[in-house]
Design a protein that fits this description.
alpha+beta, 40% strand, 4-stranded mixed beta sheet, Nucleoside Triphosphate Pyrophosphohydrolase, single chain, 138 residues, 4-stranded antiparallel beta sheet
Length: 138
């Protein structure tokens, strides 16, 4: 699509990522082995289901993946990427944990890490696209 086009891009899949901050630290988790993202670090989140808002998707994903309630704040960043010839949209929102009593279901571990150290870990390619836009928040 030309840069001056007034048409909106049609995304095949909408995904959200939760950015949990504590000072200069960010909460990340490592996916369980298997699949395209197996063993990689990520900002937790996932696909937005039909009829679901971004906030509802993040609340559901944190309950499913960590068994913790969250509050969703403002949109911090967004990125687009292609995966298996499908166009995807990824939106990153500020998320506030209501508990840190995690039960891991989709991850093998979690960490609080300085934002500047994210590039030293093997991250999901889609999440890497958010690093530059998120940097001002840290």
């Amino acid at each position: 699509m030309p840069p001056h086009s007034t048409e909106k891009a049609s995304f095949d899949r909408q995904s959200v990522a939760g950015i949990v901050r504590d000072g200069g630290l960010v909460f990340i988790a490592r996916r369980i082995p298997g699949g395209d993202m197996g063993g990689k670090w990520e900002f937790p989140g996932g696909k937005v289901e039909s009829g679901e808002s971004d906030s509802q998707a993040l609340i559901r994903e944190y309950l499913e993946e960590f068994n913790v309630p969250v509050r969703v704040g403002k949109l911090l960043a967004s990125a687009q990427f292609e995966h298996r010839q499908n166009l995807h949209s990824l939106r990153a929102y500020e998320v506030f944990l209501e508990s840190q009593d995690f039960t891991l279901t989709e991850h093998t571990e979690w960490r609080w890490i300085p934002f500047r150290d994210l590039e030293t870990l093997e991250f999901a390619d889609s999440d890497k696209k958010l690093f530059k836009a998120l940097a001002p928040y840290f």
